[in-house]
Amino acid sequence: MSTHINDNAKFAKTVLMPGDPIRAKWIAETFLADYEEVTNTRGILGFTGHTKDGREISVMASGMGIPSIGIYSFELFSYYGVENIIRIGTCGSYSEDCHVGDVIIATGASTNSNYGKYFEQRGLKLAPCSDFGLAFKAYQNAQKLGIKVHMGPIYSSDIFYDLDDTFYKIPQQVGILGVEMESYGLFLNAMRLRKKAACLLTVSDSFVHKDEPDMTKEERSNKLVNMVNIALTLAE
Ligand code: HPA
What we know:
Layout: E1 14-17, H1 21-31, E2 33-39, E3 46-50, E4 56-60, H2 66-79, E5 84-93, E6 103-111, H3 132-145, E7 149-156, H4 169-173, E8 178-180, H5 183-193, E9 196-206, H6 217-222, H7 225-232
Parallel strand pairs: 1-4, 1-5, 5-9, 6-7, 7-8
Antiparallel strand pairs: 2-3, 3-4, 5-8, 6-9
Helix pairs in contact: 2-5
Bound molecules: hypoxanthine (HPA).
């Protein structure tokens, strides 16, 4: 049915999307009941199963960066009947208030990417946002679960290893909470295809609190439980 996802893969209406295929597998193994692997093209693993209370849900990796999540989210939305994609990832914090381990719910994404240029014709400038209903539900359910969250704008960068390590002060000055590399592409695809997307992030490193140790590789895989538990409440 599509170029980058197995032909006969069955997906739930709601797909959780971490970047890393191994993290997708860990989420299926740890949080889902009666799940099966539905796709593995190029090692991008996807699983469909149920939450422990019986709601159907899928989890599939996006790979890293806007082009990669652009391809996978487009195909899931266009060819597999998916209505909601919830990115679940890590970010670097630009905010005094957001500490390593905290969860951020993204409201919208700024970028240095040219991905939007194709859609921005005759002076139009798009402002890709999360779906309000999904983001609000995530916020409310986080309160119910007793998990503190920050809600606000984020920055999707094409560059992980920047030449200038002070650049973060620019987005920080306009209140951007943190940096990752995918949400702008996901939110824009949801807009153009009239589907829904949201993004939950766990802070893995801080540009502001330099004394806070970055999450280790192991913690990046395992200390994401709060974020995943919030995301799981969004299954229908
Ligand atoms: N930059 C971009 N993406 C990220 C970062 C970062 O510092 N941390 C986690 N994801």
